[in-house]
TrEMBL record:
<dbReference type="GO" id="GO:0003697">
    <property type="term" value="F:single-stranded DNA binding"/>
</dbReference>
<dbReference type="Pfam" id="PF02586">
    <property type="entry name" value="SRAP"/>
</dbReference>
<dbReference type="GO" id="GO:0016829">
    <property type="term" value="F:lyase activity"/>
</dbReference>
<comment type="similarity">
    <text>Belongs to the SOS response-associated peptidase family.</text>
</comment>
<keyword id="KW-0238">DNA-binding</keyword>
<comment type="function">
    <text>Sensor of abasic sites in single-stranded DNA (ssDNA) required to preserve genome integrity by promoting error-free repair of abasic sites. Acts as an enzyme that recognizes and binds abasic sites in ssDNA at replication forks and chemically modifies the lesion by forming a covalent cross-link with DNA: forms a stable thiazolidine linkage between a ring-opened abasic site and the alpha-amino and sulfhydryl substituents of its N-terminal catalytic cysteine residue. The HMCES DNA-protein cross-link is then either reversed or degraded.</text>
</comment>
<keyword id="KW-0190">Covalent protein-DNA linkage</keyword>
<feature type="region of interest" description="Disordered">
    <location>
        <begin position="238"/>
        <end position="295"/>
    </location>
</feature>
<keyword id="KW-0645">Protease</keyword>
<dbReference type="InterPro" id="IPR003738">
    <property type="entry name" value="SRAP"/>
</dbReference>
<protein>
    <recommendedName>
        <fullName>Abasic site processing protein HMCES</fullName>
        <ecNumber>3.4.-.-</ecNumber>
    </recommendedName>
</protein>
<dbReference type="InterPro" id="IPR036590">
    <property type="entry name" value="SRAP-like"/>
</dbReference>
<keyword id="KW-0378">Hydrolase</keyword>
<feature type="compositionally biased region" description="Polar residues">
    <location>
        <begin position="238"/>
        <end position="249"/>
    </location>
</feature>
<dbReference type="GO" id="GO:0008233">
    <property type="term" value="F:peptidase activity"/>
</dbReference>
<dbReference type="GO" id="GO:0006508">
    <property type="term" value="P:proteolysis"/>
</dbReference>
<dbReference type="GO" id="GO:0106300">
    <property type="term" value="P:protein-DNA covalent cross-linking repair"/>
</dbReference>
């Protein structure tokens, strides 16, 4: 546990608090006994042959539930019963738009008696996320490294506006117990616990979380989303546009114009215009021949 450090903004390759059955270390331990361990986020398979775990060629920070039995990296630990539960206050997910990514913090509703929100550290209900773990020892020898991957499923209806996937969240002590009890609950039966969870709530947060180096309480604080209002044309601008549509000479097509570089809104606006388009009208509409940088 020496490697574990609490954080407001964890990223892959950092260490997290992970819950697992004590029977992984002591076969005689009670079936319901658990141990809390620090594991590195990003599964390194036991069979990985390099001496440096960072040289793994693919992303193992999460795995799709439907692929667990298809990929050796996940199938092996699953069939060996190496199931774990990642503990976290919540997780961040980004809603992607054409111009930016808006982060959200997603978590269990924090209530007391179903009425009053609870935002204290002592009474915060932690997320319990289903995962798989593996242990890897460098071929050249050295300390064994324990790593994990987060299992993801389709997003619940209330989260689909943010992202189409979400972590497989176990809801309640019984689901956590069954997921961890690899002796009593076999792999195929345990996989039935992997499904979208509609009980989560969320709020938008600052873009501070876009950089994992930012690690402060501000990362979690709710922010208000501002909606930019469309600029309404004035009477004089309407008159100018009307004149341009009737008086402007037809523009010759510029063979160097990169229409593929325009944002969808700009393409749509350009396609809606009538054929007579003058240089000034193009400038007003932002559809001139100058190329827009790709984003």
């Amino acid at each position: 546990t020496d490697n574990y450090r609490p954080s407001y903004n964890k990223s892959p390759q950092s260490f997290s608090s992970v819950l697992l059955s004590s029977r992984h270390f002591n076969k005689d331990a009670p079936a319901d006994e658990c141990v809390l361990a620090a594991m590195r986020w990003g599964l390194v398979p036991a069979w990985f042959k390099e001496n440096d775990p960072s040289k793994i060629q693919y992303n193992t920070s999460n795995c799709r539930s439907e692929s667990l039995l298809e990929k050796k990296s996940y199938k092996d630990p699953l069939l060996k019963g190496q199931r774990c539960v990642i503990l976290a206050d919540g997780f961040y997910e980004w809603r992607r738009t054409e111009k930016e990514k808006q982060p959200f913090f997603i978590y269990f509703p924090q209530t007391q008696g179903g009425q009053v929100p609870v935002w204290t550290k002592e009474r915060w209900r932690l997320l319990t996320i289903a995962g798989l773990f593996d242990s890897w020892t460098p071929p050249c020898g050295g300390e064994t490294l324990y790593t994990y991957t987060v299992i993801i499923v389709d997003a619940s209806p209330n989260l689909q506006s943010i992202h189409d996937r979400m972590p497989a969240v176990l809801d309640g002590e019984d689901e956590v117990r069954r997921w961890l009890d690899f002796g009593e609950v076999k792999s195929l039966e345990a996989m039935k616990l992997l499904h979208p969870n509609s009980s989560l709530t969320f709020h938008p947060v600052s873009s501070l979380v876009n950089n994992s180096r930012n690690n402060s309480p501000e990362c979690l604080q709710p922010v208000e989303l501002t909606v930019k209002k469309a600029v309404q044309p004035t009477a004089s601008s309407k008159m100018m546009m009307s004149w341009l549509k009737t008086a402007s000479p037809t523009k010759r097509k510029n063979p160097d114009e990169d229409t593929s570089a325009k944002a969808p809104e700009e393409r749509f606006a350009a396609e809606k215009q009538t054929k007579p388009t003058g240089p000034l009208q193009q400038w007003l509409l932002g559809t001139g021949s100058s190329k827009k940088p790709r984003t």
